[in-house]
Each structure stands twice: as C-alpha cells, then as structure tokens.
Design goal:
Layout (H helix, E strand, L loop, with lengths): L5 H4 L6 E2 L5 H11 L3 E6 L2 E7 H9 L9 H4 L1 E2 L10 H11 L3 E6 L2 E7 H8 L26 E4 L4 E4 L2 E2 H7 L2 H10 L7 H8 L7 H9 L4 H16 L9 H26 L13 H10 L5 H13 L7 H11 L4 H7 L1
Parallel strand pairs: 1-2
Antiparallel strand pairs: 2-3, 3-4, 5-6, 7-8, 8-9
Helix pairs in contact: 3-11, 5-6, 7-14, 10-12, 11-12, 11-16, 12-13, 13-14, 15-16
C-alpha cells in the first residue's frame, strides 16, 4: 500500500499576504475564501503564518484589527514541508508541535498548504481494494477507544451512563446530577456541583466582540465556533500536555458551563436583542431558556429541555466526539477540541 503524498492532498493556491497586511484585511480574505489560515510571504519566501486563532488572540488582547499588522501576530518561520513528504510525517509534526496548518514549499517557493482537516480526510483514503479480505470499511468493527462513560445497546434500545440507565436518570435526576456523573464518575450527594457550575456561567467575551461575530453573517455554527475559539484565547488556555490532567478537566467543565451563555447571547444579538445575563439561582436548563427568551420558563418546558439534555449528554464515539479526539491528539488545548467538534 503506497502512502499519499502532500502534493496529492494540499491546497495548491493558499491564501497569502504581506507582513504589513492588517489583521482586518487578512480576516476578510479568510472569510471570503472560507479558510482558517493565511501564509505570510515576503519576496517570495514564507516568513510566517496567521490563523483564525492568532487573529482572535489579537482581538482578545485588545489589538485593533485595522491597526494590527500580520508581522506582529504571525507565527514566524513556520515549519514547511515538501510535496513529496508523506501525510504520516505531516501528522506527526502536527502532533509534536501542536499546530494545524503546514505550508508546502518546493525549491524555496510556496506551492501549497495542508491542514489537519485535509490530513484526517486523506488518512481515510487507502490505495487498496476496499472489498479485499481483512480490509475494514471506515471504522466498522475497528476498536478506536475505550470508555467508561456510556454503553449503547442498539438492539435492546438501551442507553447506559456509567452503569445507570439513562431513561431512569432522566426521570429521577437533574441535568446537573447527570453531568456530575459523567464528569466525576458518581452521582453527587448534595447540590455543590450545581452551585459550582452556576457560578461559572458569566459571559466570557466582551459584548462588542460577540456583536461583531453576530453581524458577520454566515451560519450560526460558524459564529459559535469562532466565539469558542475566542474564549480559549481570552482565557489563555494552554495545550493540554503542558499542564496536569486536573487542569484539563477543569477547563472542560468551564467551557461546557459557558457554552449555553455563548449560544444564547449570539442568538439574541443576531435577532437584534441584548444578551440576558445568566441567573445563578436557576438550574442549567431553566437558565438556558431564561437567557434565550428573557422570561421565566414554564415548568413543563424546563422539564422537557432538561430530560432532552440528559438523554443526549453522551452517545459514545459519534462524529463530533471522534473529531474532538483527533484534535486533542495533536496536543491542542481542550477549548480547541470543543471548537472543532
């Protein structure tokens, strides 16, 4: 089986800019092209790269997008590879160095760019007969991970969270209780976890920045993804392998807690309404409805949402979970994995 080469999967006309280009110009060009990075070129040489994350970090640091220049925020002298290099080598470099874009250079000249998404997609392409004996189709019957979180018995129609039937949990427990079960491994004995998460709900970004994202147009998911990335930059989240496991768990809890706040604020801003501040006296589901609508939710609507959230809290190795695992495997931070998922 021959390995795919970067020249076969790269984008042959990557977006480029000069070091003197403003972040506003670069962001507009990336949005127009639907890409997440710009290669900075000077006199035909690759001197840097600016990604969406770099631009968001600049905004979070208070830089004005029109005044800020690429040369001040770009990653300088980025790793470059050749079109003849294999995708396995490129993936290893991304894992070891914790980035997601690599310029492709031939004879000192920029000829392309590869992203993590392209490499993951390319890794599914195999130069073999898919019907040959011993060849798996996709991930069918392939063990990709072990988990203690959930078990799905499709034939029996049963979903189990850490040994507890999910339907029973939805009927008898709050969403915060089930969240504690999934996050910590057991059901809580008091409301300490619920009070802890309620204190973490405050809007993590400036309202003007969220308003800018809401006015840009595009899909709601693209706006939310940008807001999540900006949150990670504003918090100064580090790659998970630079800290201890406890830090990563705390960061996962923190971003999960503010996600409803971001969703509600973006939805209201897009509709022309001011965001509603979270209410720590309300439960997770009730507070989400409160932030969306600005009125106290009826009991039946709150209960319906809470049970829905419980029954969709964990569904094993679905597409978003797999994507988050791939991103985390590169050494990226927890918030980046959530944004990608």
């Amino acid at each position: 089986m021959s390995e795919l080469r970067l020249g076969e999967v790269m984008t042959a006309d990557p977006l480029t800019a000069a070091p003197s280009a403003s972040l506003a110009e670069i962001a507009a060009a990336m949005r127009g092209r639907g890409v997440g990075s710009t290669v900075i070129v000077e006199e035909g040489r690759v001197v840097g790269i600016v990604t969406e994350r770099d631009a968001l970090a600049a905004l979070a640091a208070g830089a004005h997008p029109v005044a800020a220049r690429a040369e001040s925020w770009m990653t300088r002298s980025p790793l470059t590879l050749s079109p003849a290099d294999g995708i396995t080598h490129a993936l290893e470099e991304m894992l070891n160095r914790s980035f997601r874009h690599i310029p492709i250079v031939d004879g000192g000249r920029l000829v392309g760019l590869v992203s993590l998404r392209q490499l993951v997609n390319a890794a599914r392409i195999r130069h073999v007969d898919p019907w040959a004996p011993g060849t798996a189709r996709g991930l069918e019957n392939v063990t990709v991970a072990e988990t203690a979180l959930s078990f799905i018995d499709g034939r029996a129609g049963r979903l189990v969270y850490r040994g507890y039937d999910a339907v029973d949990l939805a009927l008898r427990r709050s969403f915060e209780d089930v969240w504690h079960l999934l996050h910590h491994g057991d059901l809580p004995v008091d409301d300490g976890f619920a009070r802890q998460t309620a204190r973490l709900r405050d809007l993590p970004l400036d309202r003007d920045l969220l308003g800018h994202l809401a006015r840009r147009g595009g899909t709601f998911m693209s706006m939310l993804q940008s807001a999540i990335s900006a949150t990670g930059a504003a918090w100064g989240i580090r790659p998970w392998h630079e800290g201890n496991p406890g830090e990563a768990e705390d960061e996962a809890l923190r971003i999960a807690t503010v996600l409803p706040t971001l969703v509600a604020a973006l939805w209201r801003l897009r509709a022309g309404h001011a965001p509603v501040d979270p209410d720590p006296s309300l439960g997770h589901a009730a507070n989400y409805l409160w932030m969306l609508e600005g009125v106290r939710p009826a009991a039946d609507r709150m209960l319906a949402l809470e049970r829905y959230l419980i029954l969709t809290a964990e569904h094993g190795m679905n597409a978003s979970t797999f994507t988050a695992r791939v991103i985390a495997s590169t050494g990226a931070d927890v918030v980046a994995a959530v944004a990608g998922a």
